[in-house]
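Table S2 (continued). Query chain:
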Amino acid sequence: MERSFSAQADFDSMAATFKCLSDPSRLQLLAILLDGETNVGKLAAQCGLSPSATSHQLRVLRNLRFVSANREGQQVNYRINDEHIRDLMEQAYKHSLHLQSSELRDK
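Corresponding output:
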């Protein structure tokens, strides 16, 4: 069933989602986590970020419940926390490809 968006809280929530997805580093972290749970050190190495910067971006993702953390001893593993994240990522990617093909046609 389609829902109409009319409440300010709906718009605020959607804006927070888009804001979270607007950072390339966070998108890269999410893309890696779509393949499975991993720790900050491995995420940092794969993204080319410092562990501190990676932790900061993960905190933003965790605050919006995009990811969750699981502590095992001194190591913290992160994983995707919401089944909608994959759909959001796929739709954003498809849309970016659509925009790129439109730009090529317009040139």
